[in-house]
Amino acid sequence: QFNIKTGEPIVFALRKCPSLTIAPPDFRLYSACSKAFKDICRSYAPVVEEFSIDECFLDFSGTQHIYPDPIALGYEIKDTIRERLGFTVNVGIGESKLCAKMASDFEKPDKVHTLYPEEIPDKLWPLPVGDLLFVGGASANRLREEHIVTIGELAHADPELLRRFLGDKMSMQAHNYANGIDNSPVRAEPEEAKGYSNSVTLEENVTTLEAADAILLALSDSV
């Protein structure tokens, strides 16, 4: 009703709804729930990759004799988590991490969705280009400026044109993802971190070097 989005900074949400009730976070509870549902996932899948505190990829390659029906398996995992832990999850099924991730976000909560190659034109391509994994707000705005509004339009865009305003790496990834192409493996062990970062959302614009220096110093100390 107030157009508040998931993950939006609290200060922005309060501007939209000053009477908003703010509940304090409980990271100990989140971590315990995260470990519990991922332990259930590991009891089914031979390889599980943690993607975030509340998401993971399960690789069932080579298990078709044990689990002949992927959709039935998705429902079993989802229902087991709900019955044992008391909260719901969405399950996305696909032939790649990208397709499984996109499918998991189609409709919530407590759902199982598929995104197989033959389903990409009907299920993926009509979505807004900003819904594609790893296409951030700035990239989505740039694409819309070039009249690329849907994922389907991105999938059919000239790669050379994309390269001009998105750069080599981003344009290739975005074009591949829009076509459902993702060859990255599911990794049980995380890759070595290439960087560490921290950020903060400020209530007011910073207009002096002194103020910026104090904020950057605090962020640097935390990193």
Short description:
45% of the residues lie in helices and 9% in strands.
Over all CA atoms, what is the radius of gyration? 20 Å
Q: Which strands sit side by side, in order, in the main sheet?
A: 1-2
Largest sheet features: 2 strands, antiparallel
Order of helices and strands: HHEEHEHEHHHHHH
Q: Rough shape? A: globular
Category by helix and strand content: mainly alpha
User: Could you tell me the number of beta strands?
Assistant: 4
Q: Counting H and I runs of at least 4 residues, what is the number of helices?
A: 10
Mean pLDDT: 93
State the end-to-end CA separation. Answer: 37 Å
**Uncertain parts:** none
Q: Which range best describes the helical content: under 10%, 10-25%, 25-40%, 40-55%, 55-70% or over 70%?
A: 40-55%
Strand content: 5-15%
Task: For this entry, give a set of tags.
223 residues, mainly alpha, 9% strand, two-stranded parallel sheet
Compile the SSE list and pairings.
Layout: H1 10-16, H2 27-44, E1 47-52, E2 55-59, H3 70-85, E3 91-94, H4 97-104, E4 112-115, H5 120-123, H6 137-145, H7 151-155, H8 159-166, H9 168-178, H10 209-222
Parallel strand pairs: 3-4
Antiparallel strand pairs: 1-2
Helix pairs in contact: 2-3, 8-9
